[in-house]
Amino acid sequence: MSANVMHIPELLANLAVKDIKVWVEGDRLRCNAPAGTLTAESSDQLRNRKGEIIAFLNMATAAARQQPAIIPLQSRGTRTPIYAVPGHIGAPFSFSDLSKHLGGDQPFYALQPPGFDGQSEPMDRVEDIAKYFARQIVEYQPTGPYIIAGYCSGAATAFELAKILCGRGAEIPCVALFGPLHPTTFSKLPRLLYFNASRSAESLLREMAKMPTFGARLRHFGSRLRNLGERAIVTPIRRSKEPVTSDPVLASRARLKSAAITALRRYIPTPYSGRVCIFLPNKAWMRSGAAPHRWLRVVPHAEFYFGPEDCNDTLMLEEPDAPAIAELYRQATQKAERSAIGSASHE
């Protein structure tokens, strides 16, 4: 396998974000893209790297027949493999940038939840999703050690998954939670409203900061206000008279998101004695509606690592912030290695 193939997941993830679908029919690569979304650069990449993309998709399809939950973003390397649970939209490629910046020696597998493929039904209990992932991981890799990771609302599933695997005797050196949402985030409406509102405001400010002139910023601000107004008017009508979407893929993703939020709302974490590292986009996140400090109730020994102040909290695992978060993970790994060496020297 050439070195370039290792970047194919990133390419496909970028296309998927734009709802550009790529698949294989026989020896041909097919593509379906909404009008205006397929750029000349993307077309050139699909054309020039056709063979690599077909090989990767065929490999992923073969693996999916055996373990549909296991999506290999990086299958090579000598370090302890990471198995990562995505957020409530279930997109396994949300870890692509992080995996790339962790380097070629770090095996990294994203976990695709039931319902993401549109063929199976989503689960609405964290415990059931975690048991499903545990079964898939053990079938794929019968013995540990495993690093279990989770992002956003997927942190709760990762936490439960680590407990299940530990209970079965597996070695879990670390549970890595990236920007975790505590279940209480969705149990109180005021907290949820605050969290969503703060994310929207911060996103808008960052977008405006990139504009070259004050006039451009003003026009962008006005455009966002108009969009909000249109959604406020249209959304109630759609709910009462029309289905939210006729696209089966979007409809299945909406069901998955709803089930994931329901699962998180129901989940009550219980104490865990293993190592837990919590990676937050910045120190201000500790005071956000995500309530990361509440994890200390069940893991009082949890370690906290903070990204830079200007980290985009809602996209912390993506460019341009992925390198900083990858470096935090390396710091946590090095800390554990130093601790292990220190313990060995005292024996």
UniProtKB/TrEMBL annotation:
Domain Thioesterase TesA-like, residue spans: 83-268
Alphabetized Gene3D superfamilies for the sequence: alpha/beta hydrolase (3.40.50.1820), Non-ribosomal peptide synthase, adenylation domain (1.10.10.1830)
A Pfam family matched in the record: Thioesterase
SUPFAM superfamilies: alpha/beta-Hydrolases
Record-linked InterPro entries: AB_hydrolase_fold, TesA-like, Thioesterase, TubC_N, TubC_N_sf
Entry protein name: Thioesterase domain-containing protein
Lineage: Bacteria, Pseudomonadati, Pseudomonadota, Alphaproteobacteria, Hyphomicrobiales
